[in-house]
Structure formats: C-alpha cells, structure tokens
Amino acid sequence: MESKPENSYGVIFMTQRIVLAPEEMPKQWYNFAVDLPKPPKPYLGPDGKPITPEMMAPIFPMNLIEQEMCTDRWVDIPDGIREILAKWRPSPLHRAVSFEKALGTPAKIYYKNESVSPAGSHKPNSAVAQAWYNKQAGTKAMTTETGAGQWGSALAFACAQVGLELKVYMVRVSFDQKPYRKVMMQTWGADCISSPSDTTEAGRRVLAEMPDTPGSLGIAISEAVEAAVSDKTGKTKYGLGSVLNHVMLHQTIIGQEAKLQLKKAGEKQPDVVIGCAGGGSNFAGLAFPFAADKVAGAKIDIVPVEPTSCPSITRGKYTYDIGDKSGMTPLILMHTLGHDFVPSPIHAGGLRYHGMSPLVSAAVAQGIMAPKSIHQLECFEAAVLFARTEGIIVAPETSHAVAAVIQEAKQAKEEGKEKVILFNLSGHGLMDLKGYQSYFAGELSDYELPQAQIDKNLEAIKGFPSAE
Ligand SMILES: Cc1ncc(COP(=O)(O)O)c(C=O)c1O
Q1: 414: domain CATH number?
Q2: Dihedral through CA 159, CA 175, CA 308, CA 426, nearest 10?
Q3: Residue among 112, 253, 426, 431 whose CB has most ligand 1 atoms within 8 A, to mutate
Q4: Over the stretch 356-374, which tens digit does the pLDDT of each residue have?
Q5: Which range of residues forms the domain containing residue 445?
C-alpha cells in the first residue's frame, strides 16, 4: 500500500495548504444583491428620493456607479484587473492543523489567507478594480480615507499599478499608532494626511469643535469626498474601501476561490463561515458565495464578528443613515450606531466604523447571518495562540475572526462534533505590532459601549427614513 505523508494529527501534509492553479482564478464576481430574498432598498438623497447615477457622478466614475447599482448575478472581471490580481491570486486556503491540535477540537478549521497580497490584506482585491476602472474612465487622481492604514496602502499600491495620483486621509489615532503604514503609502507614491486635517472644510470644522479627537472613519470619509468634489475639472474621484455594493462585489473572488479549494480538500461545504466585519468587505467577500447556498437551502452558520466597543450590527439600529460625518454621502439603509459616533481608540482601527455594508445589513436583517461581538483582550489572546501555532501574526481586525473561531471550536468539542469551520484571515499584523506590544504590556482593556451613548447618537438621526 502506498504510504501517506501524514503528521501526528492524522492530516495529510498536502491538505494543510490548498492552492489553485493561476487559471483557476475566478473570471467573474458574484452579486449577492440579486439573491437576497428581499431586494435591497435604494440609496436616498437628502429629499428622501432614490438617488440617480448622475447624482453620484461627481464622486465616482460611471463604470463603478453602474456596478454599484448592478442587477446582474455575475459580472465579468476585465483581463486588465485579473492580470494585476494574478501577482498574488489565487490566495491559498490553509487547514489550521496546529491550531486545531492546540484547541483539542474535533472541528476542522480552514482559513483563506488574504495576507499574501502586496499590501498585506484583502483590500487590494477592490483597490485594484477601483483604480483600474477609474483609469479607464479618465480619472487622473483619487482620494480616499483609511482607518488602520490597510485600505490606504492597498489603494496606493493599486494606483501605482495603473498610474494614478492618490491622497489618503488617515484617521488620526491610526496615523499616530502606525507610522509605517504612511511610509508604505509614500513608497507607492501616495500622499497620506492625518484626519481631521486643516486641508478641508469638514476637517477644520471638526478640529474647531474637538481639537483632541482621535478622528473617525466618518470624519475621514467627509474629508476625502470633499477633496475629490472640490476639483472642478472632475478628474479627481473618490474610492471607498468597504461598505458599498461594488466593493463587496470585488471581494467575492475570495469566497469563490475558497469554495473550490474546500472541494479540493474533500469538504462538501463548511458548517460555519466567519469573518471580522468593519464595513463588511472581507466578511462579505468570503461569505456571499456561501450565503447564496444558504438561501438555496444549505445549512451554514454565517457569522460576522465585530468589536464590543463598536457594535454596529449587534447593537446598532437598522435604519437609514449617512455614511460619513457631515453628509457628503447618500442615505444608506444599514445597521448604524449613528454617524456622530466616535469609537474608542481600540487597535482594530479598521473595525471602528459607525455603519455596515447595506448588503451585509440586509442579510442580517433577513436572518441569513448571525453577528456577534467580542472584546479586544479575548481577540489578542486568540491572535497570540494562532501566531504560536499557525505562525501568522494576524491583524488586530482579523483577531476578531480568530476569537470567534475558538468559540466555535470549543463548542464543537463540547458537542463532540466534527464541524468544518472556515474563516477569512483578512490580513497580517506586521504593521500593527504596537497593538501586540500594548497587549503584552498589559495596557489594553475591554470596553463595552454604554447604551446611553448609542441612544444619544441615534437621537441625531431620528428624522431619517426608517427601514419600512
Ligand atoms: C486586515 C483587515 N481586516 C478587516 C478590516 C475591516 O474591513 P472590512 O470589514 O471592510 O473587511 C480591515 C480594515 O481596515 C483590515 O485592514
């Protein structure tokens, strides 16, 4: 009999890392909006009426606006985009053999490794698409915001690939915590500014009101949108790293690859799919192709995980709100903590957003996904165990997914079930070591957002249209 290269845990070495051939990279993106049992509600203008593509044209190029409002189930990925994505895609799927062993769980844990991109996260999947479509549309420069710096550096990489200028407004607390993200952006040729800044009207207003604010994604978005629309030539456009439908669409390449890889690993389907959720893009990217199966009858638990200190889906309200601080964006139906919300300066900078992707929100509201929130200390503890077993030091955002996986794996152990758990390793944390340093120094604490603060922030959006 042929001998199998098995390790002490009985797992064949080959199945620890499941790779696809270059030609197996998906040729289309998947639009989950089409398969939502109740169709998503439109974005609204200040007058409460659905906005038209023309109304979004000062901010985005028309080719991306068309994708935002797309009603096709499948959208072809242009060859020019696939050519850039092929620098690191298809990304590997790993079986977390050592992690499973440390947990003593009967569960099989798989992770899709998005940390292998040049910028170190899933963000380039959409950054490359957005930069490429902008270039096609004649855009000369882009503006954007960034929380942890992952999106800003991803778009800086993408703009360098296609030849666009880029200005990034980086949330102040992350700008101070993560100086090397700025250097990455600079290396790829982008300009990175601490937000709030005195370079925009929106930034100056916030600085006058709250000079010591740690900043927020909502404020940084206002600045970046203002910087784009104030270029009267119309050649500067804005790019958003999460939340919007076209970003979710671009990320679905992750879940499609994972599906194929799980099949190659001999799994019919996962029992649980987990991703951390800030604006929802890495989670949606992995989960939407599986959510389609769930809508069609498959039994899969789909879990977005957020920080207890910024619990938009678990404790926010499902209602219309603006996507930024000062109303530069349309009204979006989503789970929200209110656009005035300034989160506590936790290390998972990319999860500190007041709202959530409208498609993820709709899926949660329709019972297709079940969100949970986890405290920061549990997340770092999980990340350290993962690093000591699997080797990868994950981003603080990703640590939320890892902590949720541990909860599931422990439950599987209690129930004696051999569950298949799949999660998205959305990024590495090698630029986030300050967070790990503070954790080891015992300087981090847990923070539960008081209900009174949520109520106060929601008071400000009382007059906005409701979900009904
Ligand atoms: C590594 C990583 N994971 C997750 C997120 C959260 O964003 P999203 O919910 O859009 O995936 C970020 C955002 O910056 C990130 O950098």
Answers
A1: 3.40.50.1100
A2: 30
A3: 426
A4: 999 999 999 999 999 999 9
A5: 79-120+251-450
